[in-house]
Amino acid sequence: MSTASAYPSEADAVLFDGDELDRRLAAGEPAIRVFRDAREHGDAILMGRFREGAPARILVPLRTWLIDELLQRAWDRIMDARCAGIALVAVGGYGRGELHPGSDIDLMLLLDDTGLDGRDGCIEAFLTFLWDIGLEVGHSVRTLDDCVTESERDITVATNLMESRLLKGPEPLYQAMREATGPERVWPSRAFFEAKWREQLDRHAKYHDTAYNLEPNIKESPGGLRDIQMVGWVAKRHFGAETLHDLVDQGFLTEEEYQDLDAGQNLLWDIRFALHTLAGRREDRLIFDHQTALAKQFGYTDQDHTLGVEQFMQRYFRTVMELSRLNEMLLQLYQEVILYADDREPPQLINKRFQSRKGFIEVTHPNVFQRYPFALLEVFLLMQQYQELKGVRASTIRLIRANRHLIDDRFRDDLRCRSLFMEIMRQPRGITHEIRRMHRYGLLGRYIPAFGAITGRMQYDLFHVYTVDSHTLFVVRNLRRFALPEHASELPFCHTIMQRLPKPNLLYLAALFHDIAKGRGGDHSELGAEDAYAFCAAHGLSEYDSRLVAWLVRNHLLMSMTAQRKDISDPEVINAFSDQIGDRTRLDYLYLLTVADIRATNPEMWNSWKDALLLELYTLAKRALRRGLEHPIDTEELVRETQAQARRRLKVKGLHHMTVKSVWRHFTDDYFLRYSAEEIAWHTEAIARCQSQDLPLVLLDGHGARGGTEAFVYTSDKDHVFALTVYAMDQLNLNIQDARIITTRNGYTLDSYLVLDDDGNPVQDPGRKDEISTRLRHVLSQDELRPPSCRSVPRQLQHFNVGTQISFMDDPNNGRTVLELITADRPGLLARVGYTFARCGVRLQSAKIATIGARAEDVFFITDHNNAPLTDEKQLGAIRKMLIELLGETSDLVEQATGL
Prior knowledge:
By secondary structure, the protein is α+β, with helices and mostly antiparallel strands. The protein is built from 39 helices and 18 strands. 53% of the residues lie in helices and 12% in strands. One of its GO terms (biological process) is regulation of nitrogen utilization.
């Protein structure tokens, strides 16, 4: 069912010339060539009209008409008298008359009582002919009994047959099928509705109940074409509606709502038609490969703060959001009519504005919102407070949408409205559900206009996989899950901290505002903090609480950036971070916001390594705050403390204290600062029991204390140990998360790499561990430095032009140079960096590896051969030049920055 008529109003001789086809056939030309030429000619005409600006709502019915003509003529040509009892039926999307360029042509060959009876040859000849002329045909061959049996068993079959059209063959046979599979015989409307609703819920769950990921499926995602079809299927089954406009006559849609539905479908049809054209096949995913081209085709150009592709995708996302709202409202109306039509139970009064009917809240009078505008927020609070409520009545949803205009400056300044909103944020249950419902109904963006500006806004990268508004609501959801006992097992430490927060609602407010200034230009954290402070102050929060929320918004990236970009084994880094935090309360709030934010940004970003890294930073900062900022961590004291803990562990393992002393006498204090007592004991025991002929020593620790698998290498110090190691790890498809390189006083190196397997988890399989150890020992023993090999770049990474930035900064406190590399992520990146260091005489002391979507942001702490900072400009230039060459960049794409 569509919003348009099924066929063009008049025949299109330019698109298909039947007389010309007959003439060529009569002249003896091969039928396959004649029919294929006619199809290609018609498709070319349609493509040309689309490029000229013709809408898909015109072209889709035309293409259906074209295929009808070809199939009917092919049928007449091939099927002989023996096949008189077979009906050719269009089903599914083709039955609806909705053929896009890459759509499947679904057919059913309906047999009479005689069954196949030797007619399989002509059926096979017909289908083969269709494939030969280039038609993508899906088919089934069924008797009348088969149709009934399959329909009873599978609602998808019943739906396809409900949308069928007779193309050729006996009309009585087709009508008998329609009657036998109609709602009076198979899937009565109540059962049909319940099954299709469950089908939609399951489909939405596959897309995490959001249409707002960055490569959405325009057909299957929430708010997509399938949701429109769902509305049509139920309307057709229960009400006999033939077009969506019939729902206006039935009183289910207003004319304005129908226009919104029609406009939404037309846009999705245009996008789908263009997608199929660009891909040259059926493609319903708005993948990165096509988004930029589509944006240009739809007339979008880059602006100061917004790319053309981001504008195009925002239009798409806002459209599917509106379609989702209409879908929800219509299905609720259907539920009331189909499921509860015979129910005469009186409503239960809640207050003078609202009542409950069959578990759904509704207004007591159609003018409630006009008389009491604050009730537009009150309805969501009542949904939280009355646990028996299952949802909002469709008639009330319609009234809410119709009265959104009442939310203006006067409404926002009303003390009752402000109090209601804050009360919603303080409730012990239902915060996530009702904030999301408020957003779906279009009220959240009206009440907080800045939130309306980010609705549907995408960021064209692989880091943020959801639109800004969807991401924000996921952050709120994650924070709520920390608070709920039923989700405590997901992240127990977060749950524990959440229980001691004095005011969790401040955290939810910070989540709502943390990205609210995206797309304005400038620092979104600073701008968002200003918005958050103004909102909190206006809503009656104390000065302290308002400043806390603003501080959280301003610093929401501080913890993740410190953990992933700085050396948190350095006491000075911890002292500086703790100084920015200030107190334990802020640390608790920021830790929870950081975890929730990362987990809501990209499902693939959160892993055991990030979990352990943030927990380590939290623990170190908590210890520093407990000491007091006026008593910073003393390096010598920390070294003595760590050594004492490690000695106790080694004593338990049976290692004599003189043996330990012999191993440690070559280690610098830096080693004891950068490793835990447990790790030091592990290393020391292995080194003490190792003979020189056993080198290189390679250990793999699978206990996962740091959130990954630690690969430890102990061998004689050479210029390219790092290069060889990362080369081997690249070949093993290991993802390096962290690297720590320590050189001993007697010419050995202690290298530690935190790695995850290809699936983002620590290496667990013993066979895989043996493979890694064997490969590393082999490569390090060979001592042969090879140029890094080229590997194919994943599809998604190819569509992001990330300019390379190479910067050098001095780190005088630690006697080293910091190299920061920001570039497009690619396979083998670290192998290229390691090769560069080896060739340029650079020693790596430590590394922080971070991949943010398509962008790698890696920090390397390096020295020269004498373990001194790099000061020679020629050497720095050589490093930069080789990196540029190995990364395949041209010099004009590289931003150079030196902070020496």
